[in-house]
Amino acid sequence: MIKIVVDVFSGDNPRALIKGTAAAVNQYPDVHIVMPGDPEFLGSELALYDYDKTRLEILPASEVIGNDESPTVALRQKRDSSLVKGATLLKNDPEVGGMISAGSTGAILCCGIFVVGRIRGIDRPALAPILPTAGGGSVCLIDCGANSDCRSEYLAQFALLGASMMRSVCGVEDPRVAIVNVGVEGHKGNMLTAQTTKILKDMPVNFVGNMEARDALSGKYDVLVCDGFVGNVLLKSIEGTARYVMNDMVEALKKNAPAGLDLSFVEASEKEVMRNFDYNSYGGAFLLGCKKPIEKVHGAANEFTIPCAVGQTRSMILSGMVDKIVERLGQMERKTTEE
Amino acid sequence: MIKIVVDVFSGDNPRALIKGTAAAVNQYPDVHIVMPGDPEFLGSELALYDYDKTRLEILPASEVIGNDESPTVALRQKRDSSLVKGATLLKNDPEVGGMISAGSTGAILCCGIFVVGRIRGIDRPALAPILPTAGGGSVCLIDCGANSDCRSEYLAQFALLGASMMRSVCGVEDPRVAIVNVGVEGHKGNMLTAQTTKILKDMPVNFVGNMEARDALSGKYDVLVCDGFVGNVLLKSIEGTARYVMNDMVEALKKNAPAGLDLSFVEASEKEVMRNFDYNSYGGAFLLGCKKPIEKVHGAANEFTIPCAVGQTRSMILSGMVDKIVERLGQMERKTTEE
Q1: Model pTM score
Q2: Using a CB-CB distance cutoff of 8 angstroms, which residues of chain A are in contact with residue B249?
Q3: Would you state the pLDDT for residue A332?
Q4: Residues A55/A33, Cβ–Cβ less than 8 Å
């Protein structure tokens, strides 16, 4: 049985996420879910759904960490919050393999670092969503918001983490790693990309050079490495642009279509396409670099987000990714020591 | 008569740009164009088109600065290149009001700084395209690629330059200036945005706070301030995402449309929408902060780019924007001195 903590309380809409959790229990017969939170609220909400009750347990937690709270203060003061209780269980119970939370990036990052703990050799855990690309593939963007100011060593570690995830979760054999940059030419970029390039050339990753942001979804790359500020801008601009282009297109189609035409196929096509550009439908972003996998789902996540996230965390646990990263870092360390 | 230099030789496709230049002469009866370059080539290409020959003159220049050359080396060694000749004329001839070039960002930036010269009080000129937003408005993104590593003072100056351009070129009375950031909350961001926020609060611009990248095209802002690395990533991801969303949508529409339906309205709608997300159709980006306006058009610009760019540079010259910036910087300086 694969045990996963699901913290729904830090999000905007716990009710929908509880519904999604019940659905996830039904979808994955080998998954056992632990939900930290108010037992009364959880109990009455869960009573609305039909699911295997032997595989969903409640972990009492009386507090919730809000989106606007200082993560470090909240972590100290709200020891009985759903997020801290969940993270503590994740750390202490060897049977629990991973956690999913709808909490704020800051609070999840703090729990990852101070409760669960970092993998030795990783300076900063990073947030990494997996985005669908042209041609039906996927690409990992790391970091997309955990670390706004980065050193080149962090970015090099992100490359390692991202590549490991793409092998583990998406089955990509030798992930192509690129640095998000302002041009593909080697001399382009800023001080951070220049230093990162030097380090990556000597690392055990398939480093293929620079990538221009217009090619993020091209399918030509498997891992896109950048600091959390740039990654966040890139991710959100993809999301925003998709919405604007689609709105404009639907309006133009309505205006230009022959009079009287049934436009239900336009609506169906819109839904189909936007699913790929919508945070909620593709689960969440992994916080990589901690001793156990933690997945952050969007604050505005809905009921469909959770089954998808549970599936991803389940794959991550089954793949033994964290152990593989530890092993790879150990090899690098031994190599450096021998040299 | 408004005199503008148009350098077509540094682009990928001079022939198309020459055609566009002839068209621009026809479109703007008060514009006089000077084209630096190989007189023979220019002459034989221009002979293909019908335009008012009294308002287009050739400035002989035997060299071309390529996209892959080191800008500083090229500037020193290729004194007879179209770009350097054009920039030198712009600097020395009081009748010439502005320049348009299809050259590389680096080469144009070097010409702006070392040939034309910076406005006193501006540390770094910045590239600023004007993008169409939802609701038919427009937004200036500054810097979008001239300065990859920035100090907060540069960003504050970008705010001033961008606001001035939006007043001059787009007639926005009191441009709303925002910092591109990872969240709208004041405490979010990196060291650069934190420092820039402090400076902007005391500056004579309508600073409205942070903007998340998903709202870049929302129409809620008039000027988006960021370093050239982030701006470049934002701009190119808008461009790239628009293309991917549209491709997916057209494919989905074809698949879902009733059999036998004439889909020419889909193609027409696609063209209509993509015009707004296509670099070429909206002219170019201004290099702001130099003593005379310089507009960079995309290396892959086509014949339709030039008339659009000529119109923008013409507006910029007519508005007397550079003088207004000089005046505003002078006021700020006096205020600081008095305090």
Answers
A1: 0.92
A2: 245-246, 249, 269-270, 273
A3: 79
A4: yes
